[in-house]
Design brief:
The chain is 48% helix and 5% strand. It has 185 residues and is mainly alpha-helical. The chain folds into 2 domains: 62 residues, ANL, C-terminal domain (GMP Synthetase, Chain A, domain 3), CATH 3.30.300.30; 94 residues, Non-ribosomal Peptide Synthetase Peptidyl Carrier Protein, Chain A.
Length: 185
């Protein structure tokens, strides 16, 4: 989301100041990630703002930079992997805003479904709205941790248990196929 604006006075407010002000007034997913200061808005022949004439990304864009903080827990790492797959990114930090990374409502739905598929019982109280309200991995994990019905340590243990079960199942299949080959020969 980009905000185009004409500042009233000098000095111009910084993107961080504007972002902090808007975060107090708007839901986080509605706060722009980039700001462009203009002398005047480009107008079309009928006097409306000409959106095609507005600067494109890279031209005078001032973005709020977020330092990369890697996911720490298995839970955060799994969420990050789901986000990376949905967004086509190599790495996602716990403070990166989903919408600032280029995420949209269709991808939110995909991520929601993937989270529910990964942890169906543990995240039964997770709603689609939660992904809009908590658009960073850190905030989402923090909110789920506050939820009394969600025990993140059990989520991480379930993940480890699932990996062990998958490995054991693969070993059983290998043994069965070895026996079948021996009988066939």
């Amino acid at each position: 989301l980009v905000a185009y604006m004409i500042p009233e006075g000098k000095p111009e407010p910084s993107p961080e100041e504007i972002g902090n002000f808007l975060k107090e007034k708007l839901p986080e997913y509605m706060v722009p990630s980039a700001y462009v200061f203009l002398e005047k808005f480009p107008l079309s022949a009928n006097g409306k703002i000409d959106r095609r004439a507005l600067p494109k990304e890279g031209e005078n864009f001032q973005k709020i930079e977020v330092a990369y903080v890697p996911p720490q827990t298995n839970f955060e790492q799994t969420i990050a992997k789901i986000w990376q797959d949905a967004l086509g990114l190599e790495k996602v930090g716990i403070n990166d805003n989903f919408f600032d990374l280029g995420g949209n409502s269709l991808q939110v739905t995909k991520i929601y479904n993937e989270l529910r598929k990964t942890w169906p019982k543990e995240l039964e109280n997770l709603s689609l709205v939660d992904l809009f309200k908590y658009p960073t991995i850190g905030k989402l994990a923090g909110e789920l941790n506050r939820d009394k019905t969600t025990d993140l340590s059990s989520l991480e243990q379930n993940n480890v248990d699932l990996e062990a079960k998958i490995k054991a199942g693969k070993n059983r299949l290998k043994q069965r196929f070895k026996k079948a080959k021996a009988i066939k020969n």
